[in-house]
Amino acid sequence: MAAPFDEHDPYLWLEEVEGERALAWVEQRNAESQARLADAPGFAALRDDLQAILEADDRIPFVVKRGEHFYNFWQDRDHPRGLWRRTTLEEYRKARPEWEVLIDLDALNAEEGENWVWHDAHCLRPESPDAPWRHCLVSLSRGGADADVTREFDLVEKRWVEAGFYRPEAKGGLGWIDRDTVYVQTDFGEGSMTRSGYPRIVKQWRRGTPMADAEAVFEAEPDDMAVGAAHDSTPGFERDFVSRARAFYDNELYLRQADGSLTRIEVPNSAHKQVHREWLMIELREPWEVAGTTHPAGALLIADFDAFMGGERELRVLFTPTERTSLSDVTWTRRYLILNVLDDVKHRLYVLTPSEGQWQPEPLAGVPTLGSVSVSAVDDEESDEVFVIVSDYLTPTTLLHGRVGEGLETLKQAPALFDAEGLEVTQHFATSRDGTPIPYFQVAKRDLEPSGEHPTLLYGYGGFEVPLLPGYSPGVGRAWLSQGGVYVVANIRGGGEYGPRWHQAALREKRHKAFEDFAAVAEDLIERGVTSARRLGIQGGSNGGLLVGNMLTRYPQLLGAVVCQVPLLDMRRYHLLLAGASWMAEYGDPESDDWEFLRDVSPYHNLDPEADYPPMLLMTSTRDDRVHPGHARKMMARMSEQGHRVLYYENIEGGHGGAADNRQRAHMQALAFTFLGQTLAGAE
């Protein structure tokens, strides 16, 4: 049986996020780190350079199309909290488009005495194609937390709607049904939130009535993760759906009938489900037997939606994974389906055209074969236009635009923000403890001398089926590569680089596999003469913070420095802190026998006062309401108590992203790179 749950923890008081004693402790720790890092020679110049990169006027302003306008959210030095603005495609093609500002968040903050951070805007498609887009639901967060407020904005009048839809601060959201009706899932009062801290009740709310009087649509169980509802406004295919997330990988999807009744879509709960026009698309996370045929995890299936709901089970296979390939993403346009396939963590895009039951794949023309590629529909209800974003570690991001079947043109090209001359990207494979090949990317000088003396930064994540893909990072380029450092990204198990099997190989009691993979990459870098243990730094955030925390306690002999950001570290209490209960499908339940394996991967519980740990920098945010700052606080306190070399910095704002604006992002990046430079250069 699991150990008693009331074991003594002397630092529980640090879980009081805004407790007076806890914040005084944070202030003191911040002052220590500031004195050590922010007052170091070169820090101010690096911070200013990183902020200039983040706020460069010629970076690409990515857009979303609504009607005749293209919308963008933009932050720069003069507008640190940002501008929500729009322009036309003709204007957007210009090097310096003219923008129409809709919301100036800095001005709004000054007017209202708030610290709003932009989340998103959900806008209602007009009933007539000739009518203007008008009604938007804008979500704003105080300080960058996940919890936010929703307010209605008029795109024609360019103002907030008086007595419009308004949702008070909570986790949840609003979604349009029509101009006078929305779905609302939020905190309705006692008992309305799940154990994970998300809404468990979704309602239909009519304009002009109190939110408390909204009509209940669905109510989940307290131990479920969350609920939601959405209206599909596609002309001719108008439908409403309700989703019930029982756990992170356990989701039921229902079709809501005209009378309000719900009909479950009978596919595995673990599968990703998507309805587009007449099609039901099913991406499997586990094998599924249908009509005598077993389809493997990672396969993509498609069926006629109405026929499927009527009981037919005629499924067509659109993609089947191999040992080296997985499905990264799917994108619908008006008439086509685009598959984004990863082949040894390299992208391949294919266009499928439905024709008499056939879906023959053809490569998407005009897409580079190197680097990371993502594709999005410009408007999947009206056209076959797409945006394609192409990037790699050394090549600035390019935005392409065009119609499927007609080729692509370069619409925007980001500038080079660091000198990549003489650098190259190579892919390597390390062998993990159980013999599994683990791919990783290395960015370094061409013909790097195998001296074992190159300062190297190894980055990883390894969780929630999230792949780490090549992308241009000017901050890494300026602060690390241009200083002679080597940058490495490890594609370890737990991530999604090879689909569900890669993720599930490090799930729950197998979590240690992710750490073994990361250690194998570190050992391979040392064996290849790229670096040595005293020159090797590692970095990770959130689940990646759990990764590097375990690397500290398990493999300190391989490491010279550790940067641990917005981390999970106390796996005994993680499920009791903020959204932690929603991750039990990933990690396990500490109040069951799962604690037997969870204790083994809980860095907070495995710290050894006799161990010789490398220096560590812990970073978090007071306003992170996803991963509790108590994880990092308590780790810092216990490491300090034991006499280990550790620094701590907690940003007062920022949410789970760690920062609320570019000034804060630049400051925190500069702290991390200054720490790495000091420790890996032998200053410790």
Automatic annotation (TrEMBL):
SUPFAM superfamilies: alpha/beta-Hydrolases, Peptidase/esterase 'gauge' domain
Highest taxon in the source lineage: Bacteria
InterPro entries linked: AB_hydrolase_fold, Pept_S9A_N, Peptidase_S9_cat, Peptidase_S9A, Prolyl_oligopep/macrocyclase
Keyword terms: Hydrolase, Protease, Serine protease
Location of the Peptidase S9A N-terminal domain: 8-411
Domain Peptidase S9 prolyl oligopeptidase catalytic positions: 480-681
Gene3D superfamilies attached to this UniProt entry: alpha/beta hydrolase, Prolyl oligopeptidase, N-terminal domain
Hydrolase in keyword set: yes
Protein known as: S9 family peptidase
Natural source organism: Billgrantia ethanolica
